[in-house]
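We were asked to recover a plausible sequence for a given structure. The inputs and outputs are reproduced exactly as logged, with field labels preserved.

PROBLEM: sequence recovery
POSITIONS: 335
GIVEN STRUCTURE:
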């Protein structure tokens, strides 16, 4: 009796979910834009993080690389401070309910809705052999979220439209078949920094970018030095934070600011040459990566550890995922 009252009156902790697609090796932008915010949020929220290996199948992929990236990404999340006793970490393909719910939600999503997604248009334009899963990817993303009764989803600009679709599908399903899903809301993490590609500072640094412009989290110090020292700047000499006129220099200042937790404009005043700024960036990035790489090295000594964490994470949420799918199956009319 007492327990039932407590359970119904005390609000549960806000539940958040974050997915990282193992489309390539994690880079510095992923650390500042996604991993650090998740790691610091895990103390105040009920955090679920999954490596979305199924999403990585929507574009041309290499099976061996996908397997390696899935394990590497998971290991790096742990090395960067995700605590598997506090948060749930698992691989999306390790929880078959994702795909089961995906199909049920496809039956509550219109073709026109999927086709209108900006990211589908961008990623499919001018390509041959576009996979059908690229079109239905946002429905799988809706399943990822609705499976766990998620309250909040941290999303960047590029995922806002997909989250809207997830909400629309949840609301429609609930209205048509009876209350089945928690309707999630988007939260927009304060943008620490949008790190740009070192070789082309007008493009975002990304896992699938070219090696020369991307600082991977497992790059050794000499690779970091080489890439930063060759970073594109401009023909001037003055170190000034001006993203429109001086995107290369501004990016180096942003990286330094993100590493030190400082302000890029204020930092600019301390440098009298590009070479000096670049040397400071090399030191700061290596300093941020050193403890992560050291912990990753320790984890890698036991090849089974990361897989065991992923399996345990999936086991912890399996019951809830099964319950959600059962609710959806019954609501939609399956026996
Ligand atoms: P891909 O090339 O496959 O798109 P990506 O590196 O852009 O890879 P995503 O999987 O698209 O990574 O995004 C994962 C998370 O990392 C998102 O939260 C995104 O906002 C964040 N992120 C990615 N790149 C950057 C960046 N350059 N600066 C800041 N945040 C970033
Ligand atoms: Mg991206």
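RECOVERED SEQUENCE:
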């Amino acid at each position: 009796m007492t327990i039932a009252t407590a359970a119904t009156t005390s609000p549960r902790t806000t539940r958040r979910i974050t997915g990282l697609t193992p489309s390539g090796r994690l880079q510095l932008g992923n650390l500042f834009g996604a991993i650090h915010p998740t790691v610091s949020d895990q103390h105040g929220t009920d955090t679920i993080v999954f490596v979305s290996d199924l999403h990585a199948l929507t574009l041309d992929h290499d099976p061996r690389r996908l397997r390696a990236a899935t394990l590497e990404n998971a290991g790096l999340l742990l090395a960067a401070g995700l605590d598997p006793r506090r948060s749930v970490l698992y691989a999306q393909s390790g929880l078959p309910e994702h795909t089961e719910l995906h199909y049920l939600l496809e039956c509550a999503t219109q073709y026109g809705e999927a086709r209108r997604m900006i990211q589908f248009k961008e990623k499919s334009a001018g390509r041959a052999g576009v996979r059908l899963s690229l079109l239905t990817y946002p429905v799988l993303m809706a399943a990822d979220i609705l499976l766990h009764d998620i309250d909040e989803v941290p999303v960047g600009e590029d995922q806002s439209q997909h989250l809207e679709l997830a909400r629309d599908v949840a609301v429609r399903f609930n209205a048509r078949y009876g209350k089945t899903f928690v309707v999630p809301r988007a939260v927009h993490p304060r943008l620490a920094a949008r790190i740009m590609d070192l070789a082309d500072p007008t493009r975002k640094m990304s896992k699938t970018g070219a090696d020369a412009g991307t600082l991977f989290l497992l790059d050794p110090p000499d690779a970091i030095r080489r890439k930063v020292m060759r970073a594109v700047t401009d023909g001037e000499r003055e170190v000034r934070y001006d993203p429109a006129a001086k995107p290369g220099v501004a990016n180096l200042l942003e990286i330094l600011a993100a590493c030190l937790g400082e302000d890029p404009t204020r930092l600019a005043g301390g440098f009298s040459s590009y070479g000096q700024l670049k040397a400071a960036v090399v030191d700061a990035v290596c300093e941020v990566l050193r403890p992560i790489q050291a912990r990753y090295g320790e984890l890698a000594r036991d090849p089974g550890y990361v897989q065991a964490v992923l399996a345990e994470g999936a086991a912890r949420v399996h019951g809830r995922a099964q319950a959600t799918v059962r609710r959806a199956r019954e609501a939609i009319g399956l026996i």
